[in-house]
């Protein structure tokens, strides 16, 4: 048993470690990088990854702040202003252009500022079924294309019924 251990140790001592300064030997199958070299490689990979993902968007960190996955969805939506206190319609409805949707809300484009904090939005669930949902506006930005882009979090189904006159009105673009 003692002799087996010695022969294994002799075999290990016969394998020569190549010098780190020689790049050809460094790439050999028997070379084991030092922890400093591994750390250096990891830093290089992280830098390259950050540069790649930063090229996807000018504001890379904004995507990390999103809680939900967003799905692009372009459609006209009916938006009805709602009073904060009683959550009843409070103003003329208008059309907005949906940008994207998520599990908790949606983003949309509009041409004029929206002064109400809460809105009702007519969401088409199927071609024959639409629901009027109450939503809270949580952010608004002015885009470089002279439009506003706002985000709304859906709170619940609206407590008031859909007024069919809204579809018969000549709706303005918000």
- N-to-C SSE series? HHHHEEEEEEHE
Helix content: 25-40%
Please count the beta strands (DSSP E, at least 2 residues each).
Answer: 7
* Biggest beta sheet summary: 6 strands, antiparallel, barrel
Mean pLDDT: 74
* Spatial arrangement of strands, main beta sheet: 1-2-3-6-5-4
Number of domains: 2
Number of helices: 5
* Low-pLDDT ranges: 1-8, 53-61
Q: What is the first-to-last residue Cα distance?
A: 87 Å
Stated plainly, the CATH topology of the largest domain is called: Thrombin, subunit H
What's the overall geometry? elongated
Q: Which class of the largest domain in CATH terms?
A: Mainly Beta
Describe what you observe in this structure.
Helices cover 27% and strands 35% of the residues. With 174 residues, the chain is α+β, with helices and mostly antiparallel strands. The radius of gyration is 30 Å and the shape is elongated.
């Amino acid at each position: 048993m003692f002799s087996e251990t010695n022969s294994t140790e002799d075999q290990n001592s016969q394998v020569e470690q190549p010098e780190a300064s020689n790049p050809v030997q460094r790439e050999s199958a028997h070379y084991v990088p030092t922890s400093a070299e591994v750390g250096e490689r990891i830093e290089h990979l992280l830098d390259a990854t950050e540069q790649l993902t930063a090229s996807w968007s000018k504001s890379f960190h904004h995507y990390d702040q999103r809680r939900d996955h967003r799905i692009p969805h372009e459609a006209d939506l009916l938006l009805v202003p709602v009073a904060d206190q009683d959550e009843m319609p409070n103003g003329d409805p208008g059309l907005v252009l949906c940008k994207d949707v998520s599990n908790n809300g949606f983003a949309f484009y509009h041409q004029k500022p929206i002064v109400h904090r809460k809105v009702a939005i007519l969401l088409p669930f199927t071609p024959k079924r639409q629901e009027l949902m109450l939503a809270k506006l949580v952010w608004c930005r002015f885009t470089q294309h002279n439009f506003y882009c706002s985000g709304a979090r859906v709170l619940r189904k609206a407590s008031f019924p859909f007024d069919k006159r809204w579809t018969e009105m000549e709706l303005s673009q918000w």
